[in-house]
Amino acid sequence: MIPHPPAPAPVPPVELRVLDPRLHDWGLPRPQTAMAAAVDLFACLDAPLDLGAQDAAVLVPSGLAIHIADPQLAAMILPRSGLGHRGLVLGNGIGLIDADYTGQIMISLWNRNPPGSAPITLRPGDRVAQMLFVPVVRPLMQVVQTFSRDSGRTGGFGSTGV
């Protein structure tokens, strides 16, 4: 008989403030499928916005604020897969929302396509990023003169080969 894994710990509630009433029509953050890991974020713009290839990143309001309030939980803002493949990525790589941050979530968006490519047009209500909630581990840091055991690895950036 295969043992069952332990039941997951209950997920703490996250408070959500709707700052842009259009989100009630477009949709509040929720998984798009039964097994989706993240929730989509909308571009709360007042007019279409063209992001030129290789132009500076632009902050786009999400129209919402959250209060996680649990130091063992954080949120990460990630690109949507299909949009990222077509060139719309986050200007900061990944966004991190700490448990105590309660301001509006802003999405840094950047058109990474080569210069001369067509702009990417964002329209009000477009789903432009996704938010993933992740556990946070805070280890106790111990200052040591030498490590307690040798891992055999000291090199980085390709030290294990291709």
Can you tell me about this structure?
The chain is mostly beta strands and 162 residues long. The protein has a single domain, classed as Deoxyuridine triphosphatase (dUTPase) (Deoxyuridine 5'-Triphosphate Nucleotidohydrolase, Chain A, Distorted Sandwich). The protein is 6% helix and 33% strand. The chain is built from two helices and ten strands; from the N terminus they run E-H-E-E-E-E-H-E-E-E-E-E.
Order of neighbouring strands in the sheet with most strands: 1-4-8-6
Q: Could you estimate the helical fraction of the residues in percent?
A: under 10%
User: CATH architecture, please?
Assistant: Distorted Sandwich
Shape descriptor reads globular
How many domains is the backbone divided into? 1
Low-confidence stretches: none
Query: Can you tell me the CATH topology?
Result: Deoxyuridine 5'-Triphosphate Nucleotidohydrolase, Chain A
Query: H/E element string?
Result: EHEEEEHEEEEE
Compose a concise summary of this entry.
With 162 residues, this protein is mostly beta strands. It is built from two helices and ten strands; from the N terminus they run E-H-E-E-E-E-H-E-E-E-E-E.
